[in-house]
Design a protein that fits this description.
Elements lengths: L1 H19 L9 E2 H8 L3 H13 L3 E4 L2 E4 L1 H11 L1
Antiparallel strand pairs: 1-3, 2-3
Helix pairs in contact: 1-3
């Protein structure tokens, strides 16, 4: 159970970070390198988390840049409502 909670925490941390950076569209996407530096995660670990978020439909990754999808924004919004 602890492992699942840890993964959820890491997923949400990335979503919150992207939202804080206003990475909400293709033209506002941030590089994986920059995001890795901000989060303190190794790029390989970050890519694994981002792939999970992409599978869930929360982020889009294009040319080593990432941004929130509408579903990702709605997921974050649902936490506050």
């Amino acid at each position: 159970m602890s492992t699942v909670r840890n993964l959820e925490t890491r997923l949400m941390k990335i979503l919150h970070t992207l939202f804080s950076l206003s990475a909400v569209s293709k033209d506002k996407a941030v590089s994986l390198e920059y995001l890795s530096g901000l989060t303190g995660l190794l790029e390989d670990d970050l890519k694994q988390i981002l792939n999970e978020l992409r599978t869930l439909g929360y982020v889009s990754i294009e040319k080593e840049k990432v941004y929130l999808t509408n579903n990702g924004i709605f997921k974050l919004s649902s936490i506050f409502c």
